[in-house]
Amino acid sequence: MTARGFSGSSSWLPRRRPSGRKALLATLMLLVAVASAFPLLWMVLSSLKTPAESMQVPPVWIPGTPSLDAYEKVSGVVNVGRSMWNSLVIASITTAGILLTSMMAGYAFAKYHFPAKSLLFSVLIATMFLPPIVTLIPLYRLVGSIGLNASLAGIIVPNLANAFGIFLMRQFIAGVPDDLIDAARMDGASELLILFKIVAPSVAPAIAALALFAFVYHWNSYLWPLTVLQGNADAYPIVISLSRLLSYNRGAVNTGLVMAGATLAVLPPLLLFVFLQRFFVDSIVGSAIKG
């Protein structure tokens, strides 16, 4: 059959119609997205309402006269600047430590061969199933024994290594070709140079995803900082400082104040997610392809 016959025969082939399943799936995804974003949107809008609008029934969805008075009042109740700085120090240093230790340990588990490697990795995975409350008292006593009570260092040091981070890095680094690493060793590259110049760029999406997970978790951490700081209000992170606003949440007239504080607390993690969103999605797609 000639090429013309093939091209002519394509005209009578039935055209595919848009699948109803795809339309239904898109609708469901849109509904889930709206439901997920609605609390955040409501929080921001409520922080801009006047006390009268906050008390109005039925509720006012969009403030008629947006006001920033609630944000000014928050500064009078808690030291927002100091608390935000404390949270930034805790989350940033802890995240950097987790990334460093996870990459180094993950590289060792993925590319090195040493006795009892499988046993050690199994024990590491087992620690992921321990509830945090189980290790709270031992860690607290450990921090006290080295004199780090009531300080930011006492919050940071016990969290510089993370079992999930090591597991995640190990899984992604295992996919880096051994030939690439062997070639770098033959060229005289050190193990640290190989890790940071060859392996790290190859698993950049996983690093970004781990950074996002770690930063958000430790930014929102409440129980451990509250236990370690022992009433040292100058070192309180923003999450603990905002707990003082709970006494203002007994009436609708103070709803804007509480929502303004919550908005300030959620901004840094939200901005980090927006910045790392592309890498986060790439890590999910990459893990799905490998799986």
Automatic annotation (TrEMBL):
What membrane topology was assigned to this protein in its record?
Answer: Multi-pass membrane protein
Top-rank taxon: Bacteria
- The encoding gene is ugpE
**Major location, coarse class?**
membrane
Keywords from the named record:
Cell inner membrane, Cell membrane, Membrane, Transmembrane, Transmembrane helix, Transport
> Which InterPro entries would you find in this protein's record?
MetI-like, MetI-like_sf
Please give the start and end residues of each transmembrane region.
Answer: 23-45, 88-110, 119-140, 152-173, 194-219, 252-276
According to its UniProt entry, what is the function of this protein? Part of the ABC transporter complex UgpBAEC involved in sn-glycerol-3-phosphate (G3P) import. Probably responsible for the translocation of the substrate across the membrane.
Q: How does it assemble?
A: The complex is composed of two ATP-binding proteins (UgpC), two transmembrane proteins (UgpA and UgpE) and a solute-binding protein (UgpB).
Q: Does the keyword Signal apply?
A: no
Residues in ABC transmembrane type-1 domain copies:
84-276
> Keyword DNA-binding, does the record have it?
no
In Swiss-Prot or TrEMBL terms, this protein is called sn-glycerol-3-phosphate transport system permease protein UgpE
The entry's localization annotation reads: Cell inner membrane; Cell membrane
State the species of origin.
Answer: Rhizobium loti (Mesorhizobium loti)
The GO biological-process annotations, alphabetized, read as:
transmembrane transport
Family named by the database record: Belongs to the binding-protein-dependent transport system permease family.
Alphabetized PANTHER family for the sequence: ABC TRANSPORTER PERMEASE PROTEIN MG189-RELATED-RELATED, SN-GLYCEROL-3-PHOSPHATE TRANSPORT SYSTEM PERMEASE PROTEIN UGPE
Q: Which GO terms describe its cellular component?
A: plasma membrane
